[in-house]
Amino acid sequence: MASLTRPTRGKIIAGVCAGIAHRFGVSAFLVRLLFVLSLLLPGPQILIYVAMWILVPKSNS
């Protein structure tokens, strides 16, 4: 499996969902869709996204 990094290409906002999709070998669209749907539920989704934006490094390529 690939390591968790935020891509410099193919990202929409910060590349967090694209990085997660690449890490687990699934479609970036699916991860983005699940994230948007999770926003309908109560919880700290936005805070986790921002934390990952800060903590997960950008990929070198």
Overview of the structural elements:
The chain is built from three helices and no strands. By secondary structure, it is mostly helical. The protein starts with 15 loop residues before the first helix and ends in a 6-residue tail after the last helix. The model has no long low-confidence stretch (mean pLDDT 94).
Annotate the secondary structure layout.
Elements: H1 16-24, H2 28-38, H3 45-55
Helix pairs in contact: 1-2
| Overall geometry | globular
Averaged pLDDT: 94
Strand content: under 5%
Number of DSSP strand runs = 0
- Based on CA atoms alone, the radius of gyration comes out at 11 Å
Would you list the SSEs in sequence order as H and E? HHH
Main sheet properties: none
Tell me the structural class: mainly alpha
Helix content: 40-55%
List low-confidence stretches.
none
Task: Work out the oligomeric state of the chains in this entry.
Answer: single chain
Counting DSSP H or I runs of 4 or more residues, the number of helices is: 3
Distance between the termini: 17 Å
